[in-house]
Amino acid sequence: MTEARLAALRALLDEHALDAILLSRSANKRYFSGFRLGHGEEATSGFSGTLLVTRDSNEILADSRYVEQAEIEAPAWELVRTSRALDVELPPLLLRHEVSALGMEAAVVSHADWSALAEAAPGVELHAMDDELVPLRIHKTGEEVDAIGRACAISDACFAHLVEFVRPGMTEREVAWELESYVRANGADGLAFESIVLAGARAAMPHGRPSEAVIERGNVLLIDFGVAVDGYRSDMTRTLFVSEVPEEVRRYHDAVRDAQQLAIEALAVGVNGQEVDAIARTRIEAEGVEPYGHGLGHGIGLETHEPPRLRRSEAYTLEAGMVFSVEPGIYLPGVTGIRIEDIVALEASGPRLLTTSPREPIVIG
Length: 365
Hints:
Structural class: alpha+beta
């Protein structure tokens, strides 16, 4: 599999008249070489397994912190030990490989590092290749879908546990801690991102952080979380009712659930993601409230957010092999927030849900 991925990467060299590509994004390092970084490590200074690929070589650049790890996890790659900055270490390598045009990830390499390298290697043209790299990972293999599915299964089991665990009087942070403890004890490598647990009116913040706020009867409880399994992620949101909630809140939940179901039913190979987003928004608008301001969905894999994107501002033709979220919502500041999110694998025959937790209203406490 690694050889096929490298072949696809090298095809970009000819397609874009490059002599080499430098990969700095953690997910790409893992995808192409097997080298694995922990959360936040790609942002550290130094060389944490940076990949340099030419037509006839593939090298992994690692400083002392990562040398042994690189030797174990990327044995097919030539190890280049580094100790100094990018603009010092890289130019001699580019000269040795006769690189005059280098592709780089502009979204990951800092402006300062990019500028320093450009000054240190004036004979090398630097080209941003972020968009061109996207197609290499956007279609998931069966093995990748299986890994995402395993992460989703742990999320489903965790949600079932939380339904039994959560009671009025607990704080948002208590629930978030129980959530993380459960997934780590039940097969996850860890969380895919910091969990969102928000009660009552605080649920109107789409990406709010858990606090010491107490979960009270009559609240909604919005829980958005994901786990990582073998590097691949899940992402799921459910909104619980803590005892009885106002009838209008139930209607909002029904509208969001209907919007999501209509969107899922519209998913098919060749459909534009904008059209699916519009279907969900139309259903929510029929309830007399403003729909979500974020996109309807995002791709998922080795990263929690990756292409494709289902949103009104960007056309994206959906294709078999894509895996993404579908997550409409209603957010009324000071009142309430409702979101339902599932992960879908799009197959030639249509969409297949990888998360299977109930989407009907669930009352706890």
